[in-house]
Design goal:
about 300 residues; alpha/beta; seven-stranded parallel β-sheet; two-stranded parallel sheet; 10 helices
Length: about 300
């Protein structure tokens, strides 16, 4: 009999691929609002997690004990507390997606390990933003580690740029997650990158991230831990776009947007305007195989899917 897995999410870019890959070793359920179709063979639990009563009723009402729960849409401290309170009643293993944006971009290390200066520690104005809420979410789990407050053994991952089927191409302003990026490149329109795209990035192919989430489940060294994660290649952002051009058979022309004053005008991009590469030694030492899909191979698969 297959083990059982629950995915909070299941129809998104990461959660959809995770559902497909998890179904090879688990019987899989997914909690979604039901607005997008689930992969074939995935059991649906209809609930909006932002309705706490409905979420708890739907999850507990399934009357199932899951061997592992994967939360791909844990966005804030409310969601984290919901996981500890509700999911602990149906499982003792939890894997959660956070983000590398929790680090203060002005104080990042190259490469960045799991320790560091985080945005709320610097009085960062964006502490109530996506990144700020993710850091508050992390604090809820960190406060539960080793305290006996929850029976859940929890692992958190901090990916940077995730790419692959189900995602939009583009990793850097002004062409981040751009629907028409390939059209621009094919038509030889120049790309405008802040500082000419000289910052380093370490994108992770979606299947590699999903695989790491699955691989960590049985690794006790990952219990109650947070891990940085990225792909095997670290390149300048402009190289990311040039690889896409190479795969499309088109030369990419890059024009510079001056860096001076840009962050002040666009604080939402502060987390991109820094090096985003990671020390993966903690993950490797915990027994989780490191991501192996090269950037060129992954981008080719991404383009094929488009």
């Amino acid at each position: 009999m297959k083990k059982k897995a629950l995915i909070i999410g299941g129809s998104g870019g990461l959660s959809g691929r995770l559902a497909v890959m998890a179904s090879q070793q688990y019987e899989v359920w997914a909690v979604t609002r039901g607005k997008r179709p689930l992969p074939q063979g995935i059991h649906h639990i209809a609930a909006n997690r932002d309705n706490p009563t409905a979420f708890e009723s739907a999850v507990l009402g399934a009357d199932i004990s899951w061997d592992v729960v994967f939360d791909c849409i844990c966005m804030n401290e409310v969601h984290a507390r919901q996981d500890l309170e509700v999911l602990s009643k149906v499982s003792n293993r939890l894997v959660v997606i956070s983000t590398d944006s929790v680090y203060d971009p002005a104080h990042k290390h190259t490469p960045q390990n799991e320790d560091g200066i985080f945005i709320e520690e610097c009085g960062e104005p964006s502490a109530c933003s996506y990144a700020g809420n993710k850091r508050k979410m992390e604090h809820v789990f960190l406060d539960s580690f080793g305290t006996g407050k929850s029976n859940l053994q929890t692992t958190l991952f901090r990916p940077g740029h995730i790419y692959g089927p189900g995602f939009l191409l583009g990793c850097f302003p002004e062409h981040s997650c751009e629907k028409n990026l390939t059209d621009r490149i094919v038509s030889r329109e120049p790309l405008y990158l802040v500082g000419s795209g000289i910052y380093l990035t370490q994108p992770i192919f979606v299947d590699d991230l999903a695989k790491a989430m699955l691989d960590c489940v049985s690794q006790s060294n990952t219990y109650n831990q947070i891990f940085c994660i990225g792909g095997p290649d670290a390149v300048e952002n402009r190289c990311y776009y040039k690889i896409i051009g190479k795969l499309l058979g088109k030369e990419v022309t890059i024009r510079e947007i001056p860096l001076t004053g840009y962050v002040e005008q666009h604080p939402e991009y502060a987390g991109h305007l820094c090096h985003r590469i990671y020390d993966l030694s903690k993950l490797q030492n915990a027994g989780v195989p490191l991501p192996a899909t090269s950037l060129e191979e992954g981008l080719q698969k991404h383009l094929d899917a488009l």
